[in-house]
Give the backbone structure.
Amino acid sequence: MNFTRRHFNKTLLKGAGGTALLANMPLACGMTNAQEKKKLGIALVGLGSYSTYQLAPALQDTSYCYLAGIVTGTPAKEEVWASKYNLPNSNIYNYQNFDNIKANDAIDVVYVVLPNSMHADFCIRAAKAGKHVICEKPMAVSVAECDAIIDACKTAGVKLGMGYRLHSEPYTQEIKRFVSEKTFGDIHYITADAAYYSAGNPNQWRLNKSLSGGGALVNMGVYAIQSLIYGTGENPISVCAQEYSTRPDYFKDTDETITAQFEFKSGVVGTMMTSHNVRANRLYASCERGWFELDPASTYIPLAGRTSQGELDFKQESQQKLQMDDFAKHILQDSPNLAPGEMGKRDMIIVEAIYKSIAEGGKKQVMNFDSKFGFGG
Ligand code: NAD
């Protein structure tokens, strides 16, 4: 059997098929056990604040993956990161030579942490290089780009996950349990706010639509959308939305504050608010037999929550650590993908419906999600 180590790794790492193959295969090529690669090498693309202060530190504590490489457009960062994280030169790329990563077996997963309008390009290039992909939120700046990312990953046979860290986080998981077990009976009303006050550099990419794809809605609004969906266990069937602007001199190009009202098939009514001009971070659901709440609901740490039965109290760990380990386990052990690309696309369909409703003066937009999008966020 002509089966090289590189071929073996690629087969194994591209899914459960590798594990099944191994179960029936005599150990060859000096392999010592079926799951030879226990930790996957991750390369971070874009070394801005999220990579620097959250993802790279979290990757020092992960059990199933580690920081193996970087991709940066800023040459000065190469040496700083190489020495801080002991990265070999061979695992450092820039935006131009990034595609050479294809030949690098030390990198299994590419994590795209760039401004939103660059997600699609780098996710697609990563997939074409045969690497599994984690894409930061929002997935892209249009549904069409989400489709292109999903298609590229399918064609390449690589896994695709969203950087939706909350799905690996215990308070969020508890809310999902309340919903699936109907702990408080049917949900009648749900509301979610996700907002912060922005007063920094007016030229930052988040305020530039060509780089961000939108304002508060594509940034914090995605968390509010997610909260409404995992907090009901349903995808919405319609939305009406409104936009408010109080600081047009600062928010010249992107939305400042948006409110939206949702209908769900079961009859749940939902509302959300997102803003770059307000401080708020909350999920609240009123149910048949009580209520549940997270406040804050989507900050890094610490989340807090309570219900009509009392306080919630879970161990606080790095959400990014839990998230990246869950994605690595999805690849290595075929465990569920907690935040697949289809979920990122679903959220972008809702984002586009909200913008369309605003453009049409608040007109109701109907959405039809079939089962491939899953429920519950
Ligand atoms: P940031 O501004 O701190 O970093 C952006 C990085 O992209 C920088 O390294 C910058 O050099 C690089 N870059 C390349 N081309 C650029 C260009 N044309 N303009 C500006 N920067 C450019 O941003 P961030 O906060 O690290 O966000 C990056 C991505 O991560 C975004 O998609 C954001 O939504 C996402 N994010 C997710 C979370 C989360 O909790 N999941 C938190 C923060 C950010």
Notes: The first strand starts at residue 40 and ends at 45. The pocket of nicotinamide-adenine-dinucleotide is lined by residues 46-51, 73-74, 113-116, 136-137, 163, 165, 205, 211 (CB under 6 Å). Residues 137 and 337 are 16 Å apart (CA to CA). The chain has two domains: 39-163, 167-315+341-366.
